[in-house]
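Hi R.,

Here's the chain you asked about this morning:
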Amino acid sequence: MAMRRSVATLIRNFRNVVPRSDLFLHSHATSFGFKEVREEEKSKLVGNVFSSVASSYDIMNDLMSGGLHRLWKHRLVSKLHPFPGMKHLDVAGGTGDVAFRILESIKSVRYRDVQGVLDGFGETQIYVCDINPNMLSVGKNRAIEKGLGDEQSLVWIEGDAEALSFNDLSMDGYTIAFGIRNVTHMEKALAEAYRVLKRGGRFLCLELSHVEAPLFKQIYDYYSFAVIPAMGELVAGDRESYQYLVESIRRFPNQETFAQMMADTGFEKVEYENLVGGVVAIHSGVKL
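And here is the predicted structure, written out as tokens:
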């Protein structure tokens, strides 16, 4: 009971906002964590967060998840089923973590297959799209460190998930990992994903989601609100950005709601897989 009260107090102390039911009464209001801000302000605020945490983003992911984010991303890529010659778009993937895994998976296919079998495939292109130039800069530097600085298959693009610069029906796959909850209009981001995918193209979203088991939820909430911001302050020198990241998870739609949003966009075969009891979910859908 004491832990339940302490968790509830932590969350309540951070909810310095209008009641959630009132949030959407103003057509130009949206959420930035637990705060209400004008729509035109959110992208700038989110941009400030990721500019601040870019240099420590990957090490903080390791610390916050105990390294599990690597397994989650591996699972995401395995569900994508990458293939040689594919045109793939990874959105909000500035540090390259997902893109590198996709490229590695494709290269492993090439090495396994018999010479000549893949001659009919075109050139593989993996587009890494991120709205934040600081995150892209980290990704490009990581590519150089991995010996991929001259890799022609990797294309780095500064762009907005809600207004992609790619043509209709141009991509075989679309992934977004830990990014869609930060956009201002998720419906627009989903619509853009649907637009750029070819018929038969796959949409995959890896996102921190909602835990339902009561005891586990109490432990997870305590860890989120008491430990992660303190860790952000210690490692990245930025408590506020990690406070926002924790709050943004709680504002993200639950698994069933987000699956319905995907279906409403037009995706078929919509499903999700919970990992670690719902701490993370992988949503998938196909454009038919």
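One quick note: Confidence is low (pLDDT under 50) at residues 7-11, 13-27.

Cheers,
M.
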